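Task 17 of the worksheet. Students: predict the tertiary structure of the chain below and write it out as structure tokens. Keep your answer in the requested format; marks are given for formatting as well as content.
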Amino acid sequence: MTMKAWIAGFAILLAAACGEKEEARPITGEVNVYSGRHYDSDIVLFDQFTKETGIRVNLIEAGGDALIERIAQEADASPADIFMTADAGILWRADERDVFRAIDSEELKRRVPAQYRHPDGKWFGLSKRARIIIYNKEMGLPEGLETYEDLADPAYRGMICVRSSSNIYNQSLLASIIAHDGTKAAEEWAQGVVANFARKPQGNDTSQIEAVAAGLCRLGIVNSYYTARYKGADDQKAAEIGEKFELFFPNQAGRGAHVNISGAGVAKHAPNAENAERLIAFLLRDESQTAFARGNNEYPVVPGITAEGPIAAYADFKADELPASALGEHQAEAVQIFDRVGWP
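Model answer:
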């Protein structure tokens, strides 16, 4: 299936889910979204929001840190209404730069569990993903591997493929280990994982999946939504890769698998703050949550909404309930540990 065909199909699915049969409303306002998420499925949702409300969504995409810096430099002249990104650590960085204003919405607080939103309402989670372990099916899951902590065991020497330490997803994973196990144990863990690398960190999560499928490494650390792109692929080559690896959710007998979020908040100097709140509320509606998550193989953040699409087969797991804000609070320490242990 081509990307254009996929997007068209997704748009039809969303319109059906929303029960949208009316003509699009005339444009009566706008909302400016600065987004570090780069998914076509988000654009489909924004178009649906415009069709229902008449509020045009003006989208500016870039890296999360670049957008934070832009908003900070624009100061009170910034046109940004919403800052949206794909990691709790980036949300924390934005809050540290005073990017957000608080949203006092009891409805949003009811929709989003406390661990997936800012304690003062400055940002709210929109979707979830787990950072998990994958393994080569032919080689099998190594005996004794049950937790993230086990990845540092010398028994797994030369088995692990993973991204560089500059990747925010790895920083958030290490931040969670700091929060649970303490700084000393987290550094010992990182040092042990470095010793168990099958190759020098390189590429993105897709690269790790394909390396595991090819047998270049037995284990990989990746985000769950990347795996569904192979497990549910129409493309024969991608589907064949999906047959060669399997997912493993760590720490199921303990705290649960590490979970991260995509999230958004209203910008401090938002010129269209009311429209911004309406868009965030729209993205947290039941039907939008289903479409938002399905569009990128993520998990809905609102309780009681069932995951759909390929990722649904991997939705029944115990998730870590660590507050997402803790991932940012321990981020600087995680970066220092990575540097000390020589994780490139």
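Marker's comment: The longest strand covers residues 124-136. The CA atoms of residues 74 and 333 lie 29 Å apart.
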